[in-house]
Specification:
- This protein is α/β, with parallel strands linked by helices.
- Helix content is 20%, strand content 45%.
- The chain contains two helices and nine strands.
- The strands form three sheets. The protein has a four-stranded mixed beta sheet with strand order 3-2-5-4. Strands 1-6-7 form a three-stranded mixed beta sheet. Strands 8-9 form a two-stranded antiparallel sheet.
- A hairpin with a 2-residue loop joins strand 4 and strand 5.
Length: 107
């Protein structure tokens, strides 16, 4: 499987990187937290770590550490607006349950 971006997500990341003035992609991972146990971590990336898996979607690189990949393999990252809210949405086929606020998930 792989990590993919929608065209909207890739465009938004390129905008962020352009404003930042450096970087060649994003780092996607998970951390232990929240009601359900795991939360996504999304950061700018200036290059790969030695153990990273690297995916490219719509011209944007996505770096993932092997420990996180177990939980997010097959995830599609989207970006959209709903009413006054806008942000990234994680379409992760591995998620079994999410907390009520949507900040954490369980596998």
């Amino acid at each position: 499987m792989a990590i993919t971006l929608t065209e909207n997500a890739a465009n938004r990341i390129r905008d962020f990187l352009g404003k930042r003035g450096k970087g060649d992609g994003i780092r996607l991972g998970v951390k232990t937290t929240g009601c359900s146990g795991l939360a996504y971590v999304l950061e700018f990336a200036d290059g790969a770590e030695s153990t990273d898996e690297i995916y490219e979607s719509h011209g944007v690189k996505v770096y993932v550490d092997p420990k996180s990949l177990v939980y997010i393999d097959g995830t599609e990252l989207d970006y959209g607006k709903e009413g006054l809210n806008e942000g990234f949405k994680f379409n992760n086929p591995n998620v079994k349950d999410e907390c009520g606020c949507g900040e954490s998930f369980t596998i």
